[in-house]
Amino acid sequence: CWPLKTLDAVLNWSLPSDNNDWGPLVRPLVGRGINTTRAGPQCQHLGGAPYETWQRNEVPKTLYCHDMKGGYLDDRFVNGSGQHDAFRFSRWSGIDTFVYFSHSLVTIPPLGWINAGHTHGVPVLGTIITEGAVGHDIWERLLSNEDSIEMFCNNLVLICVQYNFDGYLLNIENHIGQKEIFKLLSFVRLLKSMLNELKPGSTLLWYDSVILPTGQLQWQNKLNDRNKLFFDACDGIFLNYVWNDNDLIESKYNAGNRPFDVYVGIDVFGRGCLGNGGFNTCVAVEAARKLKLSVALFAPGWVHEKQSPDDPFIARELKFWRLISNYLYLSGPSTLPLSTSFCQGYGLAVYRDGLVISQKPWYNLSRQNYQPTDLTGYEGCDSPPVCLLHSIRDAFEGGGCLIVTSCSNQPQITRYVISVHNSVVLDGASNY
């Protein structure tokens, strides 16, 4: 799996040959229940307060934007790799949209990420990005020719259809000439229209970047009259990270009846962001949620990139998501039967029917099974106790299994969220 790096590569794109086509390997996007619940205390004691539920269209959303070292690392291999400790993500129940990000012109999400997201009912988007002088030249050439605009849009949609991902994040990080800026707006409208026609249910998001009417690259850090026409032409806006409370209040007002389509950008690396990112990312998430706005988490792979022998990935990952879990809305599947081995798409061996069939380490997100709604820890991770632990010491299918343990001597429950035929099942109780 690779991106398309040049305008000519996009304009000249054609359907791949059968030998190079991984499109048929993409799983369809499964349905999600219409109901959701806030994350709460894990392994709650029996007799605790019941969980409150809402319909998904009544609550703000969470977008996960994956940016790691330029992208296309071990995740680029259609059949996986032997690097079992490559970056992975499994906490899909609290995520509404996943974006695969790179700095290439057209980022096509790798197969493994599409399949992992689709397995959990999460749409997976690619990215269209232009930057600097090269980006300016791309748009100057493209917007000067209506036939090129139409071909560009058409091929972007065909790529989306061929590889069965669910739309794009559009990020214009360069100046657009004042004479061309409204042509860019027309391009956005055309792309959205063609996506709706050929890929119903797809999503097009606008990144807070160039402005009307000047075409200057001026991040607004809010929704206002300089970027609202782009917002109106798309399914939402991803705000730049250097916002304050007043910016969010103004954004919510300007969004009118679409406040959940405003995604408050939060850089987990902390560049200009409230709380300075990292394990303080929860500070920025809380600020957005106070106004009932959606959030866009940029580069949560920070937990993997900044690990060390004394601060390993699994401990950092659990700590990060524990800190923001109270601000997430959890969704589950909408159809039965549901089966899972809890494999996360990696392991030290490959198991089938409980037997080892290969003793080689492996990594393949396409083989990730459905993951629990509740916050899951890791066996051997020195952290506050949780009653669900992922283990790779044993498995029934794939590379891992789930250990259910007790955090106290009282009867406890752990949750699952399944919505079937307009009803929601929230609690599965077990005395353990």
Alpha-carbon distance between the two ends: 44 Å
What is the CATH architecture annotation of the largest domain? Alpha-Beta Barrel
CATH superfamily heading of the largest domain: Glycosidases
The quaternary state of the protein chains shown equals: single chain
For the record, what CATH class of the largest domain applies?
Answer: Alpha Beta
Q: Which value, in Å, is the CA radius of gyration?
A: 22 Å
Q: Summarize the amount of helix as a percent range.
A: 10-25%
Q: How many structural domains in the coordinates?
A: 2
Here the CATH topology of the largest domain equals TIM Barrel
> How would a crystallographer describe the biggest sheet?
8 strands, parallel, barrel
Protein name: Cytosolic endo-beta-N-acetylglucosaminidase TIM barrel domain-containing protein
Domain Cytosolic endo-beta-N-acetylglucosaminidase TIM barrel: 72-348
GO cellular component, one term: cytosol
Organism: Ranatra chinensis
